[in-house]
Amino acid sequence: MAGRRHGAPAGAPLKRPPAPPPRLDCRVEGLAFGGEGVARVDGMVVFVEGALPGERAAVEIAREEKRFKRGRAVEILEFSPDRVSPRCRLFGRCGGCVLQHLRYESQVAWKRRQALDILARIGGFPEFECGEAVPSPSPYAYRNTVRLHRLPGREPRYGFCGRNARTLVEVTRCEIAADAINEVLPELGRRAGRRPPPDEIRVRAGVGGGAVVHPGARPAGPVVFSLGGARFSVPPASFFQVNIPVAESIVARLADWIDAPAPVGTLFDLHCGAGIFSALLGKRFRRTVGIDRDARAVAAARGNAAEAGAGEAVFIAGDAGEIFAEAFREHAREGSVALLDPPRDGVDERLIGLLAGAGRKLARILYVSCDPATLARDLKRLCAGGAWRLEQAAVFDMFPQTAHLEVCASVRRA
């Protein structure tokens, strides 16, 4: 007897095809930090990838929680007048520039709203002085540094993290990177020059027009950048601000907040890196104390500050949370200022405690942040005891086309 060749065995239940993901008709009202549109349907918040404020979209729901849903726009039913055509062919796949479809002036305005919302919601700061956000003079071709990851495969190919953060997207041109960087991206595998090829490569464009690849076929020397009228020699793997014009605007704003007609006190530059703030603001103080974990950057900061004529300066390699108390006892004078410029994860809670309890010789704390959420958290801790208050904040679009932004805060004695 011939066997059954097709279909399910006799008596087996038929498998039903999976149900399609649910869809919603959403009117997007806002833009969340991270670049998703924000809508409300039946009182529930819906985060919508790919839709802009003012748009109506058909949204395919991918995740449902008790307090919100998350999905992606599969069709834009009504378009925003602020929607523009993305310049990059990788838009939607690359995880970097999530806002290229939004008119640049609107990007800047929404980033300010996001920063103020986060400071109020997480930090509990509903009222403080904050002017208009400062845009980047160049919305494209502004980055002097990019970091790429090696893709799987025998041949060395490099790219950025994809939109879903689980994949890598090969990149041979980046629209927000400097021209000198884009000149070497197509040949990055060859320029890496090592066997086995490195898993991560940093490409930097300093003065002189060329790009430095690190690690590369040849050991990379320091990269020289020009900022605020000074030259900075930076080790190839050390941090430096990626958008020079916006960084110059930040320095100018901090100088306004310091507002010292004559040198006073000590500047404690507690995440000094290669010494941008020490070199450019040090003349406003009788002494500068720079601290950073990156010993190579600290050595560079020492030379950069001297070349800029920053005055008396001491630089220490180490953890600011471990060093600050002793450094403050030794170097603090009336009118001193602490300047924080931490990585994205914010300031160590121990250092926040030391600053909150510092003696009255510390007159002001300036905080430069690339993550408004950790800024809000740290300022809340700093001001919790009542000795300090948030006086002013300023938003700078250091990273056009991306969801990221820079926020500076000035904290004074209460």
Short summary of the structure?
With 414 residues, the chain is an alpha/beta fold. The chain has helices at residues 104-121, 179-184, 188-192, 244-258, 276-281, 295-307, 320-331, 349-356, 372-383, and strands at residues 23-31, 37-41, 44-49, 56-64, 68-78, 129-130, 145-150, 158-161, 168-170, 200-205, 211-214, 223-227, 230-234, 266-269, 287-292, 313-317, 336-340, 362-369, 388-396, 406-413.
What would you note in describing this structure?
The structure is a single chain. The protein is of the alpha/beta class and 414 residues long. Helices cover 23% and strands 29% of the residues. It is built from nine helices and 20 strands. It has helices at 104-121, 179-184, 188-192, 244-258, 276-281, 295-307, 320-331, 349-356, 372-383, and strands at 23-31, 37-41, 44-49, 56-64, 68-78, 129-130, 145-150, 158-161, 168-170, 200-205, 211-214, 223-227, 230-234, 266-269, 287-292, 313-317, 336-340, 362-369, 388-396, 406-413. The strands form four sheets. Strands 6-19-20-18-17-14-15-16 form an eight-stranded mixed β-sheet, sandwiched between helices. Strand 2 (37-41) and strand 3 (44-49) form a beta hairpin. Helix 1 (104-121) packs parallel to helix 9 (372-383), helix 7 (320-331) packs parallel to helix 8 (349-356) and helix 8 packs across helix 9. It is globular, with a radius of gyration of 25 Å. Residues 1-5 have low confidence and may be disordered.
User: How many distinct helices?
Assistant: 9
Beta-strand percentage range = 25-35%
Q: State the total count of DSSP E strands.
A: 20
Shape: globular
Low-confidence stretches: 1-5
Query: Helicity level, as a percent range?
Result: 10-25%
- Which series of helices and strands comes N to C? EEEEEHEEEEHHEEEEHEHEHEHEHEHEE
Summing up helix and strand content along with how strands pair, one would put the structural category as alpha/beta
Query: What gap, in angstroms, lies between the N and C termini?
Result: 93 Å
Across the major sheet, the strand order is 6-19-20-18-17-14-15-16
Largest beta-sheet details: 8 strands, mixed
Mean pLDDT reading: 93
How is the quaternary structure best described?
single chain
Radius of gyration from CA coordinates: 25 Å
